[in-house]
Amino acid sequence: MLTFILRRLMLAIPTLLLISLVIFLLVDFAPGSPMSEIPLTVPPEVRQKMMAAMGADKPVMVRYVLWLRQFFIVEPQYAIDALFGTDFAQGAQRIISWQSKVPVFQIIGERLPQTLTVVGTAYLIGILIALPIGIYSAYRQYSWFDIGGTFFSTVGFSVPTFFTGNILILIFAVKLGWFPTIYDTNLRITDWESLVKMLKQMALPVTVLALFNAAEISRYTRASVLENLGQDYVRTARAKGMPERVVLLKHVLRNSLIPVVTVIALGLPTVFGGAIVTEQIFKINGIGAALIGAIHVSDLPTVQTITFIFAVLIVAFNLIADILYGILDPRIRYD
Amino acid sequence: MTDTSAAPIKLEKPRSQWRDVWVQFRQHKGAMVALVLLCVMAAFVLIGPLIWRIDPNFIDPDPVKMIRLRNKGPSWDHPMGTDQIGRDILARMMFGGRISLAVATVAMLVAIFIGTTVGVLAGYFRRIDGLLMRLTDMFLALPLLPLLLVMMFLFRDAAAKVLGPSMGTFLLIVLAIGVTSWMHSARIVRGEVLALKEREYVLAARSIGTPARRIILRHILPNVLSPVLVAATLGIAAAIITESVLSFLGLGFPPDFPTWGRLLYDGVDAIRTYPERVVWPGIAISLTVLCVNYIGDGLRDALDPRIRGR
Fold it and tell me: Is the keyword Transport assigned to this protein (chain A) (predicted)?
């Protein structure tokens, strides 16, 4: 197991390097990048200085390696310094956003909590809804509950979040006026009243994301439970006289959750990507909104860094899913 | 003693495989309903503009008339009303549906073409298998939505300059979606090819000296058709959603070329006063995707020989 984890870790490094190169080159070579948008009326020597000030006059490979160094060495040093009060970084150059002239990681640190509260809550609620529905509709296959559940999961899976989000806004915020349409990021929870306010503003975005995730996860749960219900060990358990509850919730559930757990782990990074849309609908000032904002003003360092962080998340959760699969299912041997 | 008076044995009519598939497909009620609905939608966007002959971008040149025509509710002249500069929404819905469906179909074709090529090559030639599959893994690890957004933003103006605003954006969106969604079909096809390659008929073909190219085209490709068909159907649904997400985030088609996603995006600003401008395109997108997903489910069941005939 340990060698497997080590081998997977070693494989993840070249993958990440390749992805970072792809992201860097794509953003850098694009015709719409700000390097090509300095007006022609600017005299050549001023243009030179502008390029030098942005660090854009060096060859692309040099800039790539410098960016890698900043991402993997300098920024973690700053993180450690901030945590323990040490001084590893010694004032080294950080990745600076062109738009706001602040370190990109500082922006991300400010934006991440909002995204995490909404996305994290939504994912948890989605899982909590999806598991019982998936299990029960598999147990009573072709019953009304199953037909209804399958239909709703297909609908939830097909209706895009920007439509459900706007419909919910229309019904619950505009017509009924129960919830606010805009997420207030400055809200601090200090007392009961602000907690209620927080819950109210989280309700709509969390519902949208949770429904979408629940639709996907319940499909997998149903399929996995169905597959296990037909196995021989279920018949054995029933023949021994086990109560149905134990058969279903102990024997079948444990086995059928193995693939579901991997799907949940694999789905988490895509949820971050999907949250870009939800953040846009409800005006949540999260990491997705930061990315969109940076794209619109071609703030290359921010775009590159946030995109690459998404890639790191995907690779990391792939790794976690693989390892979980090995731990949960003793039939799988990696040697 | 032989019985010669036995009735002539009734031979069943020979049946083609696709007939069997169709018979099985008709068993799936959801898929049949979805197919009918999708045909209605297709007729709406394809034949509709031939009957409803209002230019979707027509703005009345007379400013007084234009202002009077703005934000009209449903009437006989404009069954879905008019938008904030007096354009007919029904015509825009039809025109937008054309673009949305065209983008989805072409993007799916691009994705399937890349995916099948990579899958067949990786499955058939062991030497490049490792390399191609690592490439597929790398694409799967890319953060696709952020990259799509970046690609659209950075290349949109350049593409529009070279090919004109409509054709440039169309090609860019189609290519961007295609290049970022071929991975699953490549994996499916590779798995199928790996199994097919060991079959006797492939061995027979190879033993009489058939070149690899012809083995692939003649013997392998027709047999991977059914999983590819299912992947293609589901790919259309994904492409419609991706295109509308791009339009919704303001990085899709320019406003003169309304797609359903773009119409929804334009409608969001007026959602309090004119909610139907969000609801119509939203329903159109959702219904199409739902139908396509159901058809994909039905096709998967119909093409699975283990289920067929039961």
Answer: yes
Cα Rg of chain A, angstroms:
25
Give CATH for domain B42-48+82-308.
Answer: 1.10.3720.10
Q: Which two tokens stand for residue B292?
A: 């396509």
ipTM attached to this prediction: 0.80
Positive/negative CA dihedral, B17, B23, B28, B33: positive
Same domain, A24 and A145: no
How many whole angstroms separate alpha carbon B76 and alpha carbon B306?
A: 53
CA angle B91, B54, B278 (to 5 degrees): 20
Tell me if chain B has a CB within 8 Å of the CB of A307.
yes
Asked if pLDDT for residue A54 goes beyond 70, the answer is no
**Beta-carbon separation of B142 and A19 below 8 A:** yes
| Same domain as A174, residue A86 | no
Write the DSSP symbol of residue A34: G
Are residue A233 and residue A143 in the same domain, yes or no?
Answer: yes
Domain that holds residue A283: 104-328
Question: Among A64, A94, A124, which residue terminates a domain?
Answer: A94
Is B289 an 8 Å CB contact of chain A? yes
pTM: 0.83
Closest residue in A to B134 (Cα) is A15
| Chain B neighbors of A167, CB-CB under 8 A | 278-279, 282
Q: Which of A38, A30, A34 is nearest to B158 (CA)?
A: A30
Q: Is B190 helix (H, G, I), strand (E, B) or coil?
A: helix
Structural domain boundaries of chain B? 42-48+82-308
Domain boundary among A94, A118, A133: A94
Residue, of A233 and B8, whose pLDDT is higher: A233
Q: The domain spanning residue A276 has which CATH number?
A: 1.10.3720.10
Q: Which of B124, B132, B127, B126 is nearest to B206 (CA)?
A: B124
Structure tokens at B48: 């509709």
Tokens at residue A316, please?
Answer: 């990391």
Say yes or no for a CB contact (<8 Å) between A318 and B141.
Answer: yes
Of A206, A114, A165, give the one whose Cα is nearest residue B244: A165
**Residue in A163, A226, A318 to test binding to B, most B beta-carbons within 10 Å:** A163
Shared-domain flag, residues A156 and A197: yes
Distance CA B154, CA B172 (A): 11
pLDDT in tens, B106-127: 999 999 999 999 999 998 888 8
Cβ contact B205:B185 at 8 Å: no
| Residue whose pair of structure tokens reads 């694009």 in the numeric block | A30
> What is the share, in percent, of chain B residues with pLDDT greater than 70?
86
Element (H, E) at A317: helix A300-328
What is the pLDDT of chain B when averaged over all its residues? Answer: 82
Q: In the structure encoding, which two tokens stand for residue A211, read together?
A: 């429904």
Judge residue B50's burial from the number of C-beta atoms within 10 Å of its C-beta, 0-12 exposed, 13-18 middle, 19 or more buried.
Answer: exposed
CB contact under 8 Å between A303 and B150, yes or no, is yes
Domain assignment present for A3: no
Same domain, A202 and A318: yes
What are the chain B neighbours of A23 within 8 Å (beta carbons)? Answer: 147
Is A279 inside a domain boundary? yes
- B40-91 tens-digit pLDDT: 888 888 887 777 777 776 666 677 766 666 666 677 666 667 776 667 778 8
